[in-house]
Amino acid sequence: MPNQLVTFDHVELLTRDAFGFRCRVHGREVFIGNVQWREGTTVHAVGDRLVLFREDAATLGLVDWKPGGP
Length: 70
What we know:
By secondary structure, this protein is mainly beta. The protein has one domain (5-59). It has 1 helix and 4 strands. The protein has one helix at residues 54-59; strands at 5-17, 20-25, 28-33, 48-53. Strands 3-2-1-4 form a 4-stranded antiparallel sheet. The longest helix has 6 residues, at 54-59. The relative contact order is 0.29.
């Protein structure tokens, strides 16, 4: 289910530029490109929400998931 959406709450925005934004999710600092975030993302300040496809979240090390697995 690579297209399943995963939601992260309490995200902290660190920087933003023309290509995307850097944020802290569960203590991990990651860069989210403008084409990665999905509808429902509200990353503007501390405590906001980030919505990603499960596959993208796994690639960034935010969730454990392997294609073909649960």
